[in-house]
Design brief:
alpha+beta, 5-stranded mixed β-sheet, 11 strands, 2 domains, Jelly Rolls
Amino acid sequence: MDALDAVLAAAGVRGTIAATLNAAGPWGLNLDDIPGAAFHAVTDGTAWLCLRGQPDIRLLPGDVVLLPTGAAHVLASDPAADTVPFDRAAAQRALSAGEELHLGCGAPQARILCATYRQDPAITMPLLTLLPDLLHIPAARASAALGTTLRLLAQELGEPAPGSAAVLNRIVDILLVQVLRTWLTAAPAPPRGPSWFAALTDPVVGPALAAVHTQPGRDWTVASLAAATGVSRATLARRFPEKVGDTPAAHLTRWRMDLAAQRLRDSDDTVSAIARTVGYTSEYAFSRAFTRARGIPPGRYRARSRPA
């Protein structure tokens, strides 16, 4: 497991199919108030994506688009086409019946899968919000793995069978990881400044992040973390804040508090047991750290965060 694996697993970022569009003739769809991140994959035909403040983008078969904050946008046959609001109820009825959401009339012009991603609110470690407002990966730039997954997606959409919704949701989960990989390897510079996510590819900070995220219960110091990653203490102490925007100690504490908050909500483990899991030998020290981070003691957080 690496740092990205650890955060994806803890954050519970999961994709859900919002609709499979089959668009024909002049058509336009206005999508706003998207919960979480919005994702589109064009499996057949072409479409235009329009986002305020960005150039209009013509999407071709195999293109994927991620809008990490779910910003309002338009999908259309032409940037000047009239639009209708996205009908979530109609899309849900179509999905439940194993059907597509049809737009326009005449010969089909595009087939597009639309999905959303949400993150566990107990996890404060940012992920999708560290990406640009709009991330477009043309088919020509897609990795072989991403291309294979998109073909599998197109096949599942074209030949629906029992359990297709579950299969499509899992494919969407895989697509997110592949899109993140593509951004990490292709982005020339972090668009939002220093971040742990962009630092994953750094030869010094990347291994340190992997150590912290996969072994949060270890008694890490800058010296021991530097030794584990094969660099000097001075090098890590300088480079980590430069790339991540925070010190190793502050980043580790945030990660520990995220994991603790999740376990307080989801498990019946004692506060003392949870404290030991995230690297605290003293329940008192853990409670003080958790209260500073979340503004509420662990026991009260547990009571408030659990469903009634």
